[in-house]
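Lecture notes, part 5. Sequence design as translation. It can be helpful to think of inverse folding as translation between two languages: the language of shapes and the language of residues. The source text, in structure tokens, appears below.
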């Protein structure tokens, strides 16, 4: 698949030198039409409300998928929508809906969507019928599993769309995957991350956990699944991080560099020590995802279960990773100029919001070459968590 096709299938991010000075923030009753949440006095960053509503908690874009088309002019991002209940941990009640937000102007204005036959609608899960056209220009795939908000399917399922997420087919099983001996007795905890490799072929970057071991609910490991027959069957291709590794490794975000290497950023945690900060690591594969090796530590994600990464590649080949540090209460970018071997520049996207409960970013580069970072956040002006887009220009 050429670079342009791959870019249209997933989100990308671009480097920016920015220092945000926060001015006026407004809190709309409903986060449609891209209400501007506040403006920045520096020339490099603007903030826009993606989705917000009084008495509701919106969160976790990284759990819910990101898609883009037309070089990032059209963007679709998922999020969890629940009733706001102030309490320990997340201020969300038992109701947890899965919604989408769409922009057709590169992230400045947004509309909120609740498609039928989607995640959380409790439709019967069927075997994948095959003949899936992964290379269709308007294709989107959404994975749902267990271990996170809004979905509880330990075997994993997926939905597909051929009209940019307006209508969805499924849910379908990953035929043959759960029967693989490498996944015996495990629960699938995958979010949505994939790479289109042909008209009828795909790599899906997934994760699984074992509940029969100590700290098993926080010891997920990432693996690669692949279909080469239009989704009729899926094959286990290997673990990205081995089970001899003692730490959590989950929520992979993957890009391919100019040399064809795959670089994966991962959320990391030591479940045996709650006082050790969580962190983000990078791994690399030089054989199309068959085997992986440690590349570098990207940065610290703080306590309180840390944060997942969003990884992207710039047009000039630099890598950028975005994540939140819940201890310092910052949303950060890290930039690498050597394919992820080191990360030499830290940039603050958001500093000291109202709550540590924030982040879970998704990232892309829009049609104007600007960075679009999507995350959830609460501020003193907007104390109920909402979805925000930070657009960085002049990079």
């Amino acid at each position: 698949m050429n670079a342009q096709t791959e870019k249209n299938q997933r989100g990308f991010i671009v480097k920016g030198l920015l220092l945000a000075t926060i001015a006026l923030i407004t809190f709309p009753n409903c986060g449609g039409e891209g209400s501007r949440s506040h403006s920045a006095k520096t020339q490099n960053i603007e903030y826009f409300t993606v989705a917000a509503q009084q008495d509701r908690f919106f969160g976790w874009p990284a759990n819910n998928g990101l898609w883009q088309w037309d070089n990032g002019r059209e963007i679709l991002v998922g999020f969890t929508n629940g009733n706001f209940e102030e309490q320990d941990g997340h201020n969300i009640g038992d109701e947890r809906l899965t919604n989408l937000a769409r922009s057709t102007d590169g992230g400045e204005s947004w509309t909120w969507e609740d498609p039928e036959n989607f995640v959380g609608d409790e439709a019967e899960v069927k075997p994948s019928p095959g003949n899936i056209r992964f290379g269709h220009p308007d294709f989107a795939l959404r994975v749902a599993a267990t271990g996170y908000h809004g979905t509880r399917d330990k075997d994993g399922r997926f939905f597909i769309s051929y009209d940019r997420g307006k209508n969805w087919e499924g849910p379908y099983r990953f035929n043959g995957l759960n029967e693989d001996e490498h996944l015996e007795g495990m629960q699938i905890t995958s979010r949505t991350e994939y790479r289109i490799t042909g008209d009828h072929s795909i790599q899906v970057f997934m994760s699984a956990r074992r509940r029969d071991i100590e700290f098993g609910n926080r010891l997920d490991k990432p693996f690669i699944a692949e279909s080469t027959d239009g989704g009729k069957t899926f094959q286990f291709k290997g673990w990205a991080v081995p089970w001899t590794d003692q730490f959590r490794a989950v929520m992979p975000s993957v890009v391919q560099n100019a040399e064809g290497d795959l670089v994966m950023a991962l959320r990391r945690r030591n479940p045996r020590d709650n006082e050790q900060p969580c962190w983000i690591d990078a791994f690399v594969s030089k054989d199309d995802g068959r085997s992986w090796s440690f590349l570098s530590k990207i940065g610290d994600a703080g306590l309180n279960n840390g944060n997942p990464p969003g990884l992207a590649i710039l047009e000039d080949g630099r890598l950028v990773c975005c994540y939140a540090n819940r201890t310092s209460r910052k949303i950060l970018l890290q930039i690498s100029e050597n394919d992820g071997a080191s990360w030499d520049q830290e940039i603050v996207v958001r500093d000291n919001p109202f709550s540590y409960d924030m982040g879970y970013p998704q990232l892309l580069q829009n049609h104007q070459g600007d960075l679009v970072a999507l995350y959830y956040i609460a501020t003193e002006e907007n104390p109920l968590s909402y979805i925000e887009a930070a657009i960085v220009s002049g990079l």
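The translated text above is only one of many valid answers, since several sequences can fold into similar shapes. The longest strand covers residues 92-103.
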